[in-house]
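Input record, target 12 of the design panel.
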């Protein structure tokens, strides 16, 4: 088979979600953005039915696609950036993120056009400085006339260094200031700030709901290795195209230091499959676009595991498991077990 195969253990994802939920003792919003971190958003959501209370995606397009197979609440983490997205989100019954007054006005207009009420969570900036209300603007927003056709249901932020206790504590204190202002203006809200790292940093940060992402798939963020017994959910396999004894020349795009008569196997996996060009998956020299060379003999057409531990692979390539997982699942056929 020419395509790579990503074998995904849905039972592992479900077990991980239960472990995270028990650790948090709060509602669970399962983050399935970027096609479930490469594992498949729809399939992950189906596996977590009855475990997750809500799902989160990054984009309206992701949410609208997930809605076709998922009746649960879906939170879109990035505010809509056009009227078209706002209209699609309202029509699909998604929960919007509102990060400033302009976001809220955009959603309000879209909801009014469709004769519906848009559901929203307020995103506030407690130190990450990505997007979200700053405190001054938020205070003015809370005092302003309530938006039409919009129901504010929650408020959230995001820890930027959950492994640093002092930084995280300061962010949490600041978040509580935002929460007080918001609940005085809009009544009781669902409050959430902790992703996987946040819920492990301190149980107090779980609040009403937690938003684990990477933890669902069996990995933990920097600073929390070994904190929970999670199970890795995905392994990626490719195929051996052919093997040959090296005679002369190079190996792929580069010289080869192996001796004459040593074995080389061409594996049908390259950087177009989402793997980093320098590789770190047993390759000789850089990966080609659609193949790499392995310095051992493999059975022709035989299966070759090219990713089993995203942490180790990411470390070898100077990145994080999040990026490795999202990339590795892009071009692969997904096979679900468990």
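The sequence produced for target 12 reads:
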């Amino acid at each position: 088979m020419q395509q790579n195969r990503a074998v995904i253990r849905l039972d592992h994802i479900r077990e991980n979600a239960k472990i995270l939920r028990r650790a948090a003792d709060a509602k669970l919003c399962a983050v399935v953005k970027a096609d479930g971190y490469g594992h498949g958003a729809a399939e992950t959501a189906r596996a977590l039915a009855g475990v997750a209370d809500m799902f989160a995606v990054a984009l309206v397009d992701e949410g609208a696609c997930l809605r076709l197979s998922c009746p649960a609440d879906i939170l879109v983490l990035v505010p809509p950036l056009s009227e078209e997205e706002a209209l699609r989100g309202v029509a699909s019954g998604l929960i919007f993120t509102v990060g400033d007054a302009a976001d809220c006005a955009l959603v309000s207009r879209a909801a009014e056009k469709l004769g519906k009420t848009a559901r929203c969570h307020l995103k506030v900036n407690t130190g990450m400085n990505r997007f979200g209300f700053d405190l001054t603007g938020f205070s003015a927003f809370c005092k302003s006339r309530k938006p039409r056709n919009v129901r504010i249901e929650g408020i959230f932020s995001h820890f930027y260094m959950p492994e640093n206790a002092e930084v995280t504590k300061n962010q949490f204190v600041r978040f509580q200031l935002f929460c007080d202002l918001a609940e005085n203006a809009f009544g009781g809200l669902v409050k959430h700030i902790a992703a996987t790292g946040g819920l492990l940093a301190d149980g107090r940060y779980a609040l009403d709901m937690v938003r684990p992402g990477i933890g669902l798939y069996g990995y933990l963020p920097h600073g929390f290795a070994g904190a929970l017994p999670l199970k890795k959910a995905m392994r990626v396999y490719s195929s051996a195209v052919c093997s040959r004894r090296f005679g002369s020349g190079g190996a792929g795009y580069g010289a080869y230091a192996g001796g004459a008569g040593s074995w080389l196997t061409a594996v049908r996996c390259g950087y177009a499959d989402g793997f980093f060009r320098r590789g770190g998956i047993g390759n000789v020299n850089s990966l080609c676009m659609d193949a790499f060379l392995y310095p051992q003999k493999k059975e022709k057409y035989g299966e070759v595991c090219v990713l089993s531990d995203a942490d180790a692979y990411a470390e070898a390539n100077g990145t994080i498991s999040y990026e490795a997982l999202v990339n590795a699942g892009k071009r692969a056929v997904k096979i679900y077990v468990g």
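The first strand starts at residue 5 and ends at 9.
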